[in-house]
Specification:
The chain has one domain: Up-down Bundle (de novo design (two linked rop proteins)), CATH 1.20.1440. The chain is an all-alpha fold. Helix 3 runs antiparallel to helix 4 and helix 4 runs antiparallel to helix 5.
Length: 125
């Protein structure tokens, strides 16, 4: 059990640098979308990313019993960001290459979050 907890802590720690890289990539994309959309969908996207980052950092600060709720919020933010990306792509505000790179970064983060959800749901911590 201790080894499993150590693995979960490592997953949480892996999440922060991946999020930083993803946020940096998306900020560069958002700066290049049309001005009117930069301040609409761009702000929503940025707020969602920053909120998600705050929640990831917050996970280690709360009781283990409460972590599943925060992790589910992170997962919901990821789903919103996938939708924002599809909207940006369908409206041709971003090209296919940027879309695919961003989706792959979200997918990597989603796999880690999914593992955390399974762990905390299974162990009812």
């Amino acid at each position: 059990m201790i080894e499993k907890k150590q693995q979960i802590n490592n997953e949480q720690l892996k999440l922060i640098p991946k999020l930083e890289e993803y946020i940096q990539y998306m900020l560069e994309i958002i700066l290049k979308i049309p001005r009117t959309e930069k301040f609409n969908i761009g702000n929503e996207y940025k707020n969602s990313m920053y909120s998600m980052l705050e929640n990831v950092i917050y996970i280690s600060k709360i009781k283990e019993e409460e972590r599943i709720n925060i992790i589910n919020k992170i997962d919901a933010k990821l789903n919103c960001q996938r939708i924002y990306l599809r909207i940006m792509y369908k409206n041709k505000w971003i090209d296919e290459k940027k879309f695919k790179v961003a989706i792959s970064k979200i997918s990597e983060i989603g796999k880690i979050v999914g593992g955390l959800i399974k762990y905390y749901a299974k162990n009812n911590i």
